[in-house]
Amino acid sequence: MAQIGTQGRYFEEFQVGDEIKSLARTITEADISAFAALSGDYNPLHTDAEFAKDTPFGQRIAHGLLGLSLASGLAARTGFIDGTAKAFTSLSWRFKAPIFIGDTIHLKAVVSRTRSMSSLGGGIVYLDVSVLNQREETVQQGEWSLIISSRPA
Fold this sequence. Notes:
Layout: E1 19-21, E2 25-26, H1 29-39, H2 44-47, H3 49-53, H4 64-78, E3 85-95, E4 104-117, E5 122-132, E6 138-149
Antiparallel strand pairs: 1-4, 2-4, 3-6, 4-5, 5-6
């Protein structure tokens, strides 16, 4: 019997090489302001247009952790782990290029490996994740690992 509300893939349904792409989302000034308020990070690189003009970027940029947070949300919106993810266990992450106000980002995740863990009721799925902008440039990337439920008997 399937779990009520489960739409995501079960552990057994993940295959190395599977690719998941998200919808896109445009970064706004309101996103940056809200993240600054939530995180307490009011670094002028993110919040002061005059200050940011004199930086190597020439303008304000989104917080790196805002990009990572939005990547998590974009992954969730795809539904591929909805109701089957038990835990997010680790990540390694690189901030490769700035995300500017007005950039439109999306996520690409590729299954790099899986590890069955019957003691966990499923296994670990490792994803190579990239956040790309509207020009298909990688702005952030890394590896995520999640515990995913097995299909119910």
